[in-house]
Amino acid sequence: MSATTETARPRAGSRTAPPAAHVKRRPKFLPIALMLLFLLYSLAPVWWLLVSSTKNLSDLYQTFGLSFSHWNLGANLSRTLNYQDHIFLRWVGNSILYSTLGAAGATLISMAAGYGLAKYRFRGRGLLFAVTIGSSLLPGALLALPLYLLFSKIGIIGSIWSVLIPYWINPFSVYLGRVYADSSVPDELMEAARLDGAGEARIFGSISLRLMTTGAVTVFILNFIAVWNNFFLPLFMLNGERTFPVVLGLYSWNQQVLQSQDMTSLVITGSLLSIIPLAVFMVSLQRYWRSGVLLGSLK
Amino acid sequence: MSGEAGTPRLRGMTSRAGRGRRAQGIKGLAFTLPYVLGFLAVYLAPVGYAVWQSVHQQKRSGLGFGAPTTVFSGLANFTAVLRDSGFWSSLLRVLLIAAVEIPVVLGLALVMALLLDSTKARMAKYFRVAYLVPYMVPTVVATLVWLYLYSPVASPVISTVKHLGGTLDFFTPVNTYLSIGNVLVWEQTGFNMILIAAALQAVPRELFEAARIDGAGELRIAWSVKIPAVRPVLVLTGMFSIIGMLQLFAEPLILRQLAPQAIGTGFTPMQSIYQTAFSTSNYDYAAAMSVVLALVTGILAFAFYRLTNRRTAL
Q: To probe the interface with B, which of A64, A145, A202 has the most B CB atoms within 10 Å?
């Protein structure tokens, strides 16, 4: 590809360079307009959420949704946070707990497994990799029902383990782990460490894992977001309100809206609050997340 | 994926090295052990259990007293699923939404990624963050927001249309599909765009420069150089989108509150399964539906993969 363009360059260049330059100089209204339009589409619903959380119930229904009215954010916030003995804060805490532990476990397990698959040859390695690829295509939601039934047999339904254990096993993360290990840990370095007398566990812990940091952080972020957003598994597994993650809590509040209109402002203000931790988390780790995704998506 | 690490094979010329390699292989296996054990527990066991359940039924004694007994029922559950028109129409609904939504998401993501790629880096940075905002919003929250934006009493869209003298109902038989599809487009486009943009950034810039010197315009470069370069990403995201769409659940479940007539309890296959399992406690039948849905998903994903790969070969 590059070879053909290389040879064509001098000949075609002299002939057609002026029109190309002309195209470049033309102001690009259409692209900018499209980008702004999509910007509006992406942000308008969030803007609505922000505006609506500052309104009282009657303003919510009687004033235009995208512009501010009487400022009622303080009252909405205190109602949301104080409702049922601060249960909303508990839900946010649960979400942080599940996401952190779930993503940390998934990252460690996936990085180790991906490293083992990439750097060692053992019987069944090909099969394990094929099964991993195959099951990363298996719809996770389909597993939830049989998993629920199995977990209720061993009596861990409703406990933190019923969500954490499934979160820890993520075939796609194992696949990414393999990609990162392949591309960032040189065999020569492992060989040199072996000659220096380091054991395999030591090599993994103090050399390989460090080289795989960018990949590991990416896998952590992807899993953190996936757990934070997951609705299906907690819906099946958790039955006590106090164990809910924030999205399940908001869903349960919204279920009550039909009975009592008052819940509406709680749902809206809570929805806004639930985005903030994730947004802070994502923006602060953006550097890792972009470089890491790049590596993974190349394969 | 095809580039296997070749170095271990080069070693092991002597028997001592061979033994060392085998010992290392066992240690390599040890690294995968937590994953393998967990996989057996939360993937293999549930799949096996679902299959086992799908070939059993609960039988009560003639008078209906006492605990039901589990009896082997062969393919009875499956023939029932095959005849279950509710299940198949829910599957059709989801495929219909997918057939429109996935091309729209990928097309929009591709166009936005290409536009970002040809924009000044400093400006592109802000757009990129803004486009990722929907990805930061959990599915449940995004659907709740759209629920209000679709609501006849609270929606600023409807009030604007009314102000202009028109009427708008987001849940007519046709609009229901568009309304659900729009929530999905809003949620998914930004993330897909980032994946495509990342793949674009990995293409050597000289390639575009060479095409430009050859006289290709920006559109031509996008079509002939950039799009082929991100093809693998499009195939991958397309495949994951198909799988994701077949498990569509949260969005219709939540929007149902606004339009219980338009969106039934069995609107999507996952809703049917959820309903069958938890409202009627018919776990065996729900398991059979899950198995069928998994098979359909597998077949469609495989067909998509083959179809897109054949075109690459041409």
A: A145
The Cα–Cα gap between A20 and B133 comes to: 36
* Residues in A touching B131 (Cβ below 8 Å): 38-39, 42
Paired strand residues for B69: B59
- Give the burial class of A141: count Cβ atoms within 10 A of its Cβ; 0-12 exposed, 13-18 middle, 19 or more buried: buried
CA dihedral defined by A235, A236, A242, A244, rounded to 10 degrees? Answer: -40
State the amino acid at position A239 in one-letter form: N
A65 and B155 within 8 Å at the Cβ level: the answer is yes
Q: Can you give the residue range of the structural domain that contains A223? A: 73-298
Q: Please give the distance of CA A226 from its chain centroid, rounded to a whole number.
A: 4
User: A123 vs A171, A178, B223, CA distance in Å?
Assistant: 19, 17, 45
Query: For testing the chain A interface, which of B26, B131, B136 should be mutated: the one with the most A CBs within 10 Å?
Result: B136
Give the SS3 label for residue A98. helix
Query: For residue A49, what are the CA distances in angstroms to B100, B145, B191?
Result: 27, 7, 21
A131 and A260 Cβ atoms separated by less than 8 Å: no
- Could B50 and A119 be called an inter-chain contact, meaning their C-beta atoms sit closer than 8 Å? no
CB-based contact B215:A12 (threshold 8 Å)? yes
Q: Give CA–CA dist B229/B206, Å, rounded.
A: 13
The CATH number for A128's domain is 1.10.3720.10
Please answer whether residues A149 and B52 qualify as being in contact, where contact means their C-beta atoms are separated by less than 8 angstroms: no
The answer to whether residue A53 sits within a structural domain is: no
| CA nearest neighbour of A256 among A15, A45, A83 | A83
User: Do residue A122 and residue B127 have CB atoms under 8 angstroms apart?
Assistant: no
Q: Is A2 part of a structural domain of the chain?
A: no
Contact A232 B133 (CB under 8 A): no
Distance CA B44, CA B54 (A): 15
Residue A138 banded pLDDT, cuts 50, 70, 90: confident
Q: Please provide the average confidence, as pLDDT, over all residues in chain A.
A: 86
- Map residue B59 onto helix, strand or coil: strand
Name the nearest CA neighbour of B124 among B134, B112, B139, B136.
B112
Question: How many Å apart are CA B278 and CA A80, to the nearest integer?
Answer: 30
Tokens 């497994």: give the residue. A113
ipTM of the complex: 0.86
* Residues in contact with B15: Cβ distance below 8 Å, sequence separation at least 6, in sequence order: none
What are the tens digits of pLDDT across the range B105-151?
Answer: 999 999 999 998 888 878 888 898 899 899 889 999 999 999 999 99
Average confidence (pLDDT) over B221-225: 86
DSSP label at residue B61: -
pTM: 0.86
B280: distance to nearest CA of chain A, Å?
14
Contact list, B239 vs chain A (CB under 8 Å): 137
Give the number of domains in chain A.
1
Nearest to A245, CA basis, from A96, A106, A78, A140? A96
Query: Which residues lie below 8 Å from residue B139, measured CB to CB, with a gap of 6+?
Result: A229, A231, A247, B187, B250, B251
* Domain assignments of chain B as residue spans, ordered by start: 1-51, 83-313
Helices (H) and strands (E) in chain B, counts: 15, 2
Would you call A142 and B294 a contact, using CB atoms and an 8 Å cutoff?
A: yes
Q: Would you tell me which CATH number, out of the four given (3.40.50.261, 3.40.50.300, 1.10.3720.10, 3.40.50.2300), belongs to the domain B83-313?
A: 1.10.3720.10
